Amino acid sequence: MVKSRKKFSILIPAFNEEQGIIPCVEETKKVFENQDMDYEIIIIDDGSHDDTFSVATDFYAHDERVIISRYSPNQGKGFALRHGFDLASGDLVVFMDADLDLHPEQIMTLYKYMVDNNANVVIGSKKHPESIVDYPWRRKILSSGYYFLVKLLFGLPVTDTQTGLKLFEYETLKVTMPKLLIKKFAFDLELLVNVHKRGFKIIETPVNLSSMRLWYRITLKDVYYVWMDTMAIFYRNYILRYYD
């Protein structure tokens, strides 16, 4: 593994994660400590209704590497990541889900791809030919349909915008974040559209994904909102030229 003298900021949005947030953070800490890399972990409590915030603050009360922030009411994953980015001090920024469907050890794979390919952004992709994925067929259909739509509308050089593990140079996010408006699921798409539009290099890596409970959270209402937000991004990009 390529060693890094850079600091990683790992952003973990959390909504009703009182049972899972500590295992997630502990596994992430192990990865970076085993690699002897500098890091900070930023937990963003996205208006949880349970005890996510108190569980995390009690457990990490004396851990300077773990930053915990909260707000209310719930705003969505995109809003949480923008909020967390404002707190980040690292040279590299990781977006990671709190459910351990994607183990944090895979961050090291993303970093190696970034160094080897001189990339600004590296994203995990369920569609990569070397990926190992285990998730329901209904979700596979939705994912494939959304990829086709995104490719048709935006021509992005990626096969999967929604997998919850991504690595960015801090400076790339600093340039692209101010234009973003989406608060929920289509945030990833809006961000990558802006990254691509500004000429930053994006590459994909394989992932090992084992579905725990993420997919049943996605409802038909969520699918509708993703569709509407995607169309809004298309309108802002090609009609309003808002992102120029």
From TrEMBL:
It holds the Pfam family Glycos_transf_2. GO terms for molecular function: transferase activity. Residues 9-171 form the Glycosyltransferase 2-like domain. It comes from the Bacteria. The keyword Transferase applies. One of its GO terms (biological process) is protein N-linked glycosylation. Keywords: Transferase. The keyword Cytoplasm does not apply. This is Polyisoprenyl-phosphate glycosyltransferase. It comes from Candidatus Hakubella thermalkaliphila.
